Amino acid sequence: MQVTRVVLNSRPGNNGAPVAENFRLEEATLSADLADGDVLVRTLCLSVDPYMRCRMNEDTGVDYVTPWQLSECVDGGGVGVVESSRCGLCVEGDVVTSFNWPWQTRAVIKGSVLQKVDPKLVDGHLSYFLGAVGITGLTALLGVREKGHVTKGANQTMVVSGAAGACGSIAGQIGRLDGCVRVVGICGSDEKCRALVDDLGFSAAINYRQEDVPARLTECCPNGIDVYFDNVGGSISDAVITQMNSGSHVILCGQISQYNKDVPYPPPLSEETKETLRRKNITRERFTVLNYMNQAEAALCELSQRVQSGQINVLETVVNGIENMGDAFCSMMTGGNIGKQIIKISE
């Protein structure tokens, strides 16, 4: 059968912003003859995420994700439906997901790497398995729980950068539900600020492109900052850390402002910021969700319940068509999305 796939056409260079032309659309032929253990899947939805920028380099800079190879099909989070199977783990009609789903309209995948999911857990919103009730939600929930030290009744203030993105939008809601009395989001447009406050229950939001971030932080966080969920790094994070309280906690989730630069991960801090961390005894710990997968089942169950009950609201930006994968990826990297960026491949 004929399938359409996306391959890596070129690398942006270690200091370059990605462009849609780094990706190339190809037609390919897929054999319908399955080997033992194989599953033929039709792709429903694909995800694009900031960490993928590292996969565009020859060296990702981290040991837990591999680089994409030139002229080979790229992969990432995906959800689809089984069309035929020679694997005892799944049968025709099952909805399945994987962290390494090929960017193809259909694919043959080893059944052992697929995770069967129940559409009822997301009220039929299957894309949520790539976001709020998937690896993104896990990152937000377990990041806050493992590194944030949020305590009910402790009158804590949380700040989230990249707050209107897939992970930040969930992390702020978890912080509020877990007991933070004030949750402030930093994002890049007035529309995103409105979404954070009106739709997600943030106490306040700061548009870093238009506003004086240090001044607004002082205004929005009169008692200082106790927990910082950091998705962006750079000057925004320096401004937040300056106003953090003694004994507070930075959850180092991502550094999207630095991903196009040729620097190690996590990127180095300025001497001034290092001194602030030392002087105030602020913990700043890198969080990698893959180290906590023993907690995934219970955490996904909680996320599902909170989404279904309306305690967690989910924001998505949806684009249609595999031909738009490159554009969607580049848009996400420059903040064009509100919530999770999803590409719908088929019904």
From TrEMBL:
What is its subcellular localisation? Cytoplasm
Give the GO cellular component terms, alphabetically: cytoplasm
State the Gene Ontology terms under molecular function. 15-oxoprostaglandin 13-reductase [NAD(P)+] activity
Give the reaction(s) catalysed: 13,14-dihydro-15-oxo-prostaglandin E1 + NADP(+) = 15-oxoprostaglandin E1 + NADPH + H(+); 13,14-dihydro-15-oxo-prostaglandin F1alpha + NADP(+) = 15-oxoprostaglandin F1alpha + NADPH + H(+); 13,14-dihydro-15-oxo-prostaglandin E2 + NADP(+) = 15-oxoprostaglandin E2 + NADPH + H(+); 13,14-dihydro-15-oxo-PGF2alpha + NADP(+) = 15-oxoprostaglandin F2alpha + NADPH + H(+)
Q: Which residues form the signal peptide?
A: none
Q: Which GO terms describe its biological process?
A: prostaglandin metabolic process
Q: What is its EC number?
A: 1.3.1.48
Q: Which domain of life is it from?
A: Eukaryota
Q: Where is the Oxidoreductase N-terminal domain?
A: 6-117
User: What is the main EC category here?
Assistant: oxidoreductase
| Name of a matching Pfam family | ADH_N_2
User: What keyword terms does UniProt attach to this protein?
Assistant: Cytoplasm, Lipid metabolism, NADP, Oxidoreductase
* Family annotation (InterPro entries): ADH-like_C, ADH_N_2, GroES-like_sf, MDR_fam, NAD(P)-bd_dom_sf, PTGR2
Domain Alcohol dehydrogenase-like C-terminal: from-to ranges? 168-264
Q: Where are the transmembrane segments?
A: none
State the coiled-coil residue ranges.
none
Q: Quick one: where is this thing mainly located? A: cytoplasm
Q: Subunit arrangement? A: Monomer.
Per the record, the similarity remark reads: Belongs to the NADP-dependent oxidoreductase L4BD family.
Describe its function. Answer: Functions as 15-oxo-prostaglandin 13-reductase and acts on 15-keto-PGE1, 15-keto-PGE2, 15-keto-PGE1-alpha and 15-keto-PGE2-alpha with highest activity towards 15-keto-PGE2. Overexpression represses transcriptional activity of PPARG and inhibits adipocyte differentiation.
Report the PANTHER family cross-referenced here.
Answer: PROSTAGLANDIN REDUCTASE, PROSTAGLANDIN REDUCTASE 2
Protein's UniProt name:
Prostaglandin reductase 2
